[in-house]
């Protein structure tokens, strides 16, 4: 966390839109900690899987208490580059690694993922309780996406490759799992209020190029029971379903692909209505967002070959009837980026001629009218915390809205803006190469913050307000024994529920022989009673 001697950000004057241009901030918008923005994220600096500090010592200490499953050697070499996708025939649904996790003959030794019992035995005084979940299911030797993290009842549920698994929040034990005939390729950010979801999976069980993402499978996340299954409607070119985006709005599922979007009834999969294009097809749907009972659809309006003349728009529809409730059009030359909040509606926009750097945050009122647009780059914030995820418009990782605060995080910093005015309230910048993420707002303008692990030490969660460095309260110190695996979940999925933090990666590689650390499936921390 920040050195107590390092000053907090000094809130400046409210950033008001320049008349006639909601995408330019008043004042000296380019001064501050630097400017980085939307587009392909700047890759993080090279990092070592094991530093020469507390993490290594803790892992060695943990190895001393491991009595089951064997202990494998740890290495201190640099991070390997991600393996390139390899076209191969996928193993059968029941394929799994050897029970002991022992690498193949001639392969480098892999680190042992400790059990929750072993983690508890290695825990030091003052450290949080933790559990760690492993999954030895065989996955392809490529970069496999780990899909959206859902919290349903007392479980954390997630899809990886062909498997959807629920882990108990209290101890990480597997509650149920569903193995599908082919790999999951898309999931919505949230389930229905009663815990149901539709996952999209590939048409074929192989892992070859051109495998369409067009099979819909409903699953009850409370029980793991599978419901209806059907093929995504495909008017026109079937290759439009190679990439699909989905969202759930109450009891309605929406899917966007190939410049069109359609909605379905969650109870039986019956089709409800099509989301229309506009301006004779020049404005076409590109993404969908859900949550509660709201359906938002983003569109690109390609009215000219000149990008500076194109624009984006956001529409809200009644999910059940398809009735248009409101439409918001961006300024000419700007496009919709990613959704930060459904209620109130907060999202990013970017300049069509400078997508890598020029972006803003826009807030709408309940009727879809522009309230305020502000520039967070002057404090050094990057678009969606420079998230390296996919192109789904929801969620914008590293950004959220809670109790009147727009909370932004990322490498070395976290801060809060007023959702009504766009005024910067407070924030803090660290020089320790630590990623900081606000989990939720508390105590007026205070925030509960997750400080991610780095290569030398574990992370922690704590409550902090605008009073200054060194005023953290309710500090939960994450155990050193799990720091190496926490570090592997760098910029991953996070969920915070009832005082418990749950972490997972966003991608996992099936080629474990290329990695000095076996990847854990899920990790969770809670303050000790």
Polypeptide structure, described:
By secondary structure, the chain is mainly beta. It has one domain: YVTN repeat-like/Quinoprotein amine dehydrogenase (Methylamine Dehydrogenase, Chain H, 7 Propeller), CATH 2.130.10.10. The chain is built from 3 helices and 36 strands. It has helices at residues 54-65, 116-122, 483-488; strands spanning 17-18, 21-25, 129-133, 143-145, 150-152, 155-160, 163-168, 174-179, 184-186, 196-202, 213-220, 226-231, 245-249, 252-257, 260-265, 271-275, 283-289, 295-301, 311-317, 324-329, 334-341, 346-351, 359-364, 370-374, 399-402, 405-411, 413-418, 424-429, 435-442, 446-451, 460-464, 473-477, 493-497, 500-504, 507-509, 522-526. Strands 25, 26, 27, 28, 29, 30, 31 and 32 form an 8-stranded antiparallel β-sheet that branches. Strands 3-36-34-33 form a 4-stranded antiparallel β-sheet. Strands 5-6-7-8 form a 4-stranded antiparallel β-sheet, with no helix packed on it. Helix 1 crosses helix 2. The two termini are 24 Å apart. The model is unreliable at 1-110 (pLDDT under 50).
* Gross geometry: globular
Distance between the termini: 24 Å
Any idea what the radius of gyration is? 23 Å
Give the low-pLDDT segments: 1-110
Largest sheet: 8 strands, antiparallel
CATH superfamily: YVTN repeat-like/Quinoprotein amine dehydrogenase
Strand content: 35-45%
Number of helices: 3
CATH architectural label: 7 Propeller
Secondary structure: number of strands: 36
- How much helix is in the residues? under 10%
Structural class: mainly beta
Q: Give the total of domains.
A: 1
CATH class term: Mainly Beta
CATH fold type: Methylamine Dehydrogenase, Chain H
What would the average pLDDT be, to the nearest integer?
80
